[in-house]
Design brief:
Layout: E1 10-13, E2 19-21, H1 28-40, E3 42-48, H2 54-65, E4 69-74, E5 77-83, E6 95-96, H3 101-111, E7 117-121, H4 132-141, E8 144-148, E9 152-158, E10 167-170, H5 175-185, E11 191-196, H6 203-210, E12 215-220, E13 223-229, E14 238-240, H7 245-257, E15 262-269, H8 276-283, E16 287-296, E17 299-307, E18 316-317, H9 329-338, E19 340-346, H10 358-368, E20 372-376, E21 379-385, E22 395-396, H11 402-412, E23 419-421, H12 434-441, E24 444-447
Helix pairs in contact: 1-2, 1-3, 1-6, 3-5, 4-5, 7-9, 7-11, 9-10, 9-11
The structure holds shikimate-3-phosphate.
Amino acid sequence: MSSHGQPIPMTSQACGPLTGTAEVPGDKSISHRSLILGAMAVGETTINGLLEGQDVLDTARAMQAFGAEVTDHGGGKWSVQGVGVGGFAEPDGVIDCGNSGTGVRLIMGCMATSPIVATFSGDASLNGRPMARVTDPLALFGTQAVGRSGGRLPMTLVGAVDPVPVRYVVPVPSAQVKSAVLLAGLNVRGQTVVIEAEATRDHTERMLAGFGAEITVEDTDEGRVITLTGQPELRPQQIDVPRDPSSAAFPVCAALIVPGSDVLVPGIGLNPTRAGLFTTLREMGADLTYENERTEGGEPVADLRARFSPDLKGIEVPPARAASMIDEYPVLSVVAAYAQGQTVMRGVKELRVKESDRIDAMAAGLRANGIEVEDGPDWWTVTGAGHGNVKGGATCQSHLDHRIAMSFLILGMAAQAPVRVDDGGPIATSFPIFEPLMEQLGAALSREDV
Ligand code: S3P
C-alpha cells in the first residue's frame, strides 16, 4: 500500500531488450545496522549510501525515539549522534516499525537490556509475524514481553534491570534472532555466546567488530560460535553501504529472461552469506559474470553483468544454500518458470514467515499465470514452461510483500500476456526506485489510477 493506505495496482508487459546500467540502492540489512550501531556508539557515525526505503526510515525514526540524533544530509548521506551502549532513553510513544521484521527484531534486542519500557507495532503484515523467536532468548537476559496471542505485535518489552549474560543456540536459521541476542548482549557485563548451526548473514558480527566490540567467531562441530564481550565503548564509524544483492536480484533476473538483454549492475555486495542466488543462477545456465571484483569496507564487491540466457534449466537448489539466498526464492521461482525442467527448492520453511507466506503467495500467482507449482511445508517445485511459453495474463496478490510484488512484475516482462499485481505500494519498503530503474532499462510497467 502507499503511505496513505490506497493499494497501487501495477502491470508489467513483455518488452524489448533490457540494456544499460542498473544502480540499485544500498543494502537494507547493512542500512538498519548502521543506524542502530551508530545510535549505540559514543559520538557521530556518518553513513554514505543509506537505503532510503520505508523500512530503514522507520528504524531511523525509532533510533530518534530512543534518544539518538539522526540527520538526513541529502543524497544518501546521513549521520547519527550515538548515545552509547546503555544510553537509550525511554520512548514517549509507540515504536512503529511499519513492514520491517528486521527493524523490530533488532531494535527489541538493542533495548532489551536497558531499564526502559517500549511498545512496538507495525502494519498488518508485521503484526502477524512471530516475535517469540526473539522474545524467548531475550527472556534469558531478564527481559519481559507482553504481546498479543501467538507472540504477535503490538507488544511491550520491559528491559532487564540487572541483565545476566546468555549462551543461546539459535533454533531457526535467522540472522534477525542472532543479531537481536548479540545487540542485547552489548549492555550486559560478561560474555554472551550465540551458536548457529547454519551460517546466516554475518553483517552484525562484521560491523560490531568494526565499531570496536570484542567479538570472536569460531567454526566448531556445534556450528558457528559467536562470543561477544559486553559493555564495550563502541567507536563511531564512517560507513559506505554497499549496494543490495537482494535488490540487484531483480534487474539481474529480468535480464536473464528478456530476449536480447545485457545489463550491468555495479558495486554489489557479494558477502558469501548473501550471494547464494547468483551461484544458483549460474548453475541453471545463466550468462551472469562478476566483473571488477574488489573489497570495499571489508565486504567483497563486484559489478554483475547479466545477459539474456535462452538455455536456462531447472535444478535442485542445495538446502544448505537456503540461508544465503532466503530473500531471493520468489524471484528465483520466476526465472525457474522460464527454464526447461523442474526447479526443486527444499529446506525453506522460513519462507512461510516472511512479510507474507512466500511459498503460498508465489505458488498462487505462478499457477494463475499458467505455471505448474507443487509445495509442502518446507519445500516447493516449479516446472518451467521455457522461453516464450509463459502465459501470463493474471492478477497476482502481493500480500503487503515488496519482494512478491517485484517478482510478479519481473514475470510479466517476458510473458505472452501482461501480469498485474494488486498492489505495488510495498515495493517502497526496500527498493523505492524499482519502477524508474527498470523503466530506464527498457521495462514496460504501468500503474493504474485508483
Ligand atoms: C535479515 C535477515 C533475514 C532476511 C531479512 C533481513 C537481516 O531474516 O529475510 O530480509 O537483516 O538480518 P531472518 O533472520 O528472519 O532469516
